[in-house]
Amino acid sequence: MLIDTHCHLDFKDFDPDREEVLKRARQAGVGIIINAASSLEGSIRSVELAENHDFIYAAVGIHPHESPSSDEKAFARLKSLARSKKVVAVGEVGLDYYRQTVPGVTQKEVFRKFIGLSKELSLPLIIHDRDAHADMLAILKQEFKSGKADGVMHCFSGDAAFLRQCLELGLFISFTCNLTFKNAANLRAVAREVPLDRILLETDAPFLAPQAHRGKRNEPAYITFLAQELSNIHSLTAEDIGRLTTHNANKLFRLNLMENAAIAYEIRDSLYLNITNRCTNDCDFCVRSSTDFVKGHNLKLEKEPSLEEILAAVRNPDKYKEIVFCGYGEPTLRLDVLKETACALKKKAKTIRLVTNGHGNLINKRPIAGELAGLIDKVSVSLNMDSAAKYNKRCKPGFGGRTFEEIKRFIAQCKAAGIETEATCLDLPETNLKKCRAIIENELGVKFRLRRYNVVG
Ligand code: NI
Fold first, then answer.
1. What residues flank ion ligand 1 with Cβ within 5 A?
2. CA of 6 to the centre of ligand 1 (A)
């Protein structure tokens, strides 16, 4: 499912065929549309649209070009409109110095009032910023004393430096279909720098139709072009982009979409199996301490799945390049289920890989590599560091100081058992990469792979 987090379906452009446009959006996989308002009248129409369609939500606000109309009366009216359950944001509001139609002082004063309204209503901001970066950042920093703003920088048009400041302020970043324009190489370079847990999709229809329809009226169905473009930029599939941007939109706009815990989940052309959340390490860099989500998948299990539940969740094992026992918890804590699952999938799966912290021998109180051979094709062991001291400090292993040496022993045993084995090292500041590589390649004789510490999946 895709969410178009910003469009203007209330505009006259859609009067002739609005219902047809909505139908095409649904057919293209757009599950939710957030209609952004540009004026008081637009806010009224936006709420009307949302009240009449299950899958449309509304934002109320006044575009900076219209700021002179933002008087006391207008604010009172917007506040009462926001009582609708379908109103999920204040926007679009902000600063626009591109066309000097309204003086900057007026725009700034009105924008501050809208920030006040968003706080009062506990609704996120949909922020419009054009050629006003410095004033925009100054106002956000003053108005959000904690340093964290609640909102999205819509139709992002800044450079990498502006992006960094927006990210520091905690803002989400949304791109429109102009990302697909032939001459948008700079914008694509900026889009590559946006963390995947901060990106949103929007069309801003009727404006900014994608390259394939350039110059024509844009519409929510065309958001698929944007998802495709972002998937190329981030080396993911369009489905991955859809899922993770939907998760982000759900979070920012408090849409209360159910996101059930995944036992089996896809990323790119791999299928990951989430069989436990328990782990025998307590790494201070572990993603589990900050989020239940990996690439938009909820991995927080309510209970550990049985063999039957895992196999039911897999459905078509032959569809994937590989099936991976994922490392959100330590799979060898459930060695029997792990082996039974691998055994059941063996015939159909192309490759079965185990991602592990390498504590399997300690956990099961016996060498387990021989039991995995023939069931597991590949194993990726997180050695993480280049010394036991560093490992103990950052990973706090439940088995104590001997753990690092035991992991190395496990790696060597996997190799000896004929399993294709790799060991991974984390690019933490204190890591001595050269030393880590020497341990893995020379001492243990297996493949070395570097992992970025904040990238999972
Ligand atoms: Ni807009």
1. 204
2. 6
